[in-house]
Amino acid sequence: MSDTAEGLGMFQSVPGEYEAYQKASTSECPVSGMGAEFMPFSEEYLADPYAFFRRARAEEPVFFSAEMDAWVVMNYDDIVAIFQDPETYSAALARHPVTPLCPAAATLRDKLEITTEPSLVDEDPATHRDHRRIFGDAFTPKRLREIEPRIRAIVTRYIDRFIDDGEADLVKQMLYEVPALAIFIFLGASDEDAVKVKILGSKRALVNWGRPSDEEQVEMMAGMGEHWDFTKRLVDAALENPGDNYMGDMVRIYRDDPSKFTINYLYNVAFLMQFAGHETTTQASANGIKALLEDRGEWEAICANPDKMANAVEEILRIDSSIFAWRRIATRDTEIAGHQIMAGQKILLMLGSGSHDDAMFPGGAKFDHERRNAKRNLAFGHGAHFCMGAPLARLEMKIILEELTRRLPHMQLSPDQDWEYIPTLTFRGVQKLLVEWDVEKNPG
Length: 444
What we know:
Layout: H1 17-21, H2 33-37, H3 43-47, H4 49-59, E1 62-65, E2 70-73, H5 76-83, E3 89-90, H6 103-111, H7 125-135, H8 141-162, E4 167-169, H9 170-175, H10 178-187, H11 194-200, H12 204-209, H13 214-240, H14 246-256, H15 263-276, H16 279-294, H17 296-304, H18 309-319, E5 326-330, E6 334-336, E7 339-341, E8 346-349, H19 351-354, H20 390-407, E9 412-413, E10 434-436
Parallel strand pairs: 2-8
Antiparallel strand pairs: 1-2, 3-5, 4-10, 5-8, 6-7, 9-10
Helix pairs in contact: 6-13, 8-10, 8-20, 10-11, 13-15, 16-18, 16-20, 18-20
């Protein structure tokens, strides 16, 4: 098995890169007030990280966290500057697990025939540029137009199942499965496998970016092996018979010029997309609907003005993104806002804080569906590594909002519910979203 296995406790962007960068000693880094208070796995922080973000932007927008062994960056402009310099701030660390694998999970990993390698989110800049042109450019408006009616039909079908009940858990009854079905339509896979793959990948965010138990690590490792085998079958079927879909497009590109990427690289891209292409959309949609229903005036405004829906999606992505932090590692000695950063030191970019920065988004803590620059949010990153699946995610969220506001404009949050968030460093999403409505008010 390759030592570059994604999400398995190892990491390299190019051979030896991580080891070379890790020469820096962080033991002498100053731990200041905000650094000492930064506890990203505490219940208080997970429930509302934005209160901490506000203080940090005002008091200490760059600080060192001994807890995470990383420099933490809060301001929009500083985050954007780091994204725009991938030569200095490498993406190679992006998927490296926060918690090392336990011995049992490592033993299981070594038995699996998983040949993962850096792909798109954690490649070196030159390789990423070449691959991004191929795989990112294939997210064409034509492909999105083709699948839009099918996604809308899926959303409609799920709402049909609970609209006469007067209540629902939107995460469990719609948002958990719909994005998985949408990415499968895009890739050209069958619907019946979507939920299975969703379950197989459900713990990857926790194991990669959280503090999982040994049992959770072992469970995830077994699921990854099964998921990898499924992905290979999916790609191999497309190689044999390429369809009129994204995967078919990739196979045709490969056949025209096999020097552009390997079959194993195609396995890796498909493997990544099946996770990144739905888990983030599930969480972003849940967070956004919660934010809208907590501000009744905003919810009623988009119900009355469906033409504002696209910008409302951008504001959702800004106000409470599903990816609210991301990581980089310094390739050389550098400086961030006057702080000396040594080669090999880790950097934690607080995207959720940057997207609330009043210097870029006046009144950043307030939801505003008409915010003119909402699209400058950091939910999909920035620069060379801007998420190539953003158009699909935006389309899904727009359709979900359009259908819910059209059919359940009188929907409201169920009272006195507890908000449970996924306990990770980088992913944020409510695990249930209880809503209710008066069935007699349902539109005919």
